[in-house]
């Protein structure tokens, strides 16, 4: 999915370097007869290495460069000189990137730490020079090994943003507004569905200079499993969130029904998402007076007996601190 410079899915063709061939050189020097073999080994071909970079947030760079090649190893030389290794090619990716084999769709590796490296295509070994093959019965071998070919493969990079809290809700539920109020992020906000077409991240400042990260993803609608709306593709961005914050507007026809629909869509995408901690935030409650809020609270107590919920209004800044407290408590309950 892409919007602007945000790209979270690319396919690459990577090729490692070929190893250099060994040398079959025979030593020649004035006044020295039958100097014997002294051919050096060929250099190793360059690796293609994927490396995590915390300063990156998108795979945009690979939108224009889909073929990655490492350098070839140099050939061996005389006097047992080993050829230079081929230049390794580094692919810097954002933290949270999953590497798959394009053909089998098997997960090869996941990059989740700064500086983490994984060799995705190993360079070919250099061939051995002829001095390795000298024996008592063959003192002047005139052959050496060729270099081994490098690896060639197709890979797919999928970015899953790393955040503590993931916002889940229908389109136009107020997720982007909440993110803009609770963090310094500036997501696109408008009064129509599917305003958000890419994940947005923001850092929530809590008490005593503590922080946690919140992610806003495009809205889910019923039938996303069948490709309705924006489908499922963006849901991978909440797979690594430890807590899911369900945002449902107070003017919804049936708050519990909306919640059940959202939970069911998550289950159909990945049942493991239901193992995460959940909090429900009833948004836009600045439209309610105290009497209506009490009536709604009495009804929701029975419907959400197993899930904590609270009332908030991002526009009026109501219940924001209480929401931060609830999220922090859930995020750190195991630490305590």
Strand-helix topology:
Layout lengths: L1 E2 L2 E2 L1 E7 L32 E5 L14 E3 L19 E5 L3 E5 L5 E5 L5 E5 L30 E8 L5 E5 L5 H8 L17 E6 L5 E6 L26 E7 L5 H15 L7 E7 L6 H14 L5 E3 L8 H12 L5
Parallel strand pairs: 3-5, 4-6, 11-13, 11-14, 14-15, 15-16
Antiparallel strand pairs: 1-2, 3-10, 4-9, 7-8, 7-10, 12-13
SSE order, one letter for each helix or strand:
EEEEEEEEEEEHEEEHEHEH
Strand order of the largest sheet: 12-13-11-14-15-16
> Which word captures the global form?
rod-shaped
Number of strands: 16
Low-confidence stretches: 187-197
User: Into which percentage range does the β-strand content fall?
Assistant: 15-25%
Mean pLDDT: 84
Distance between the termini: 38 Å
From the helix content, strand content and strand pairing, which structural class follows? alpha/beta
What is the alpha-carbon Rg in Å? 29 Å
Percent of residues in helical segments?
10-25%
Question: Can you characterise this structure?
Answer:
There is one protein chain. By secondary structure, the chain is of the alpha/beta class. Helices cover 15% and strands 24% of the residues. It contains 4 helices and 16 strands. It has helices at residues 175-182, 255-269, 290-303, 320-331, and strands at 2-3, 6-7, 9-15, 48-52, 67-69, 89-93, 97-101, 107-111, 117-121, 152-159, 165-169, 200-205, 211-216, 243-249, 277-283, 309-311. A 6-stranded mixed sheet has the order 12-13-11-14-15-16, with helices on both faces. It has a 5-stranded mixed sheet with strand order 5-3-10-7-8, with no helix packed on it. The radius of gyration is 29 Å and the shape is rod-shaped. The two termini are 38 Å apart.
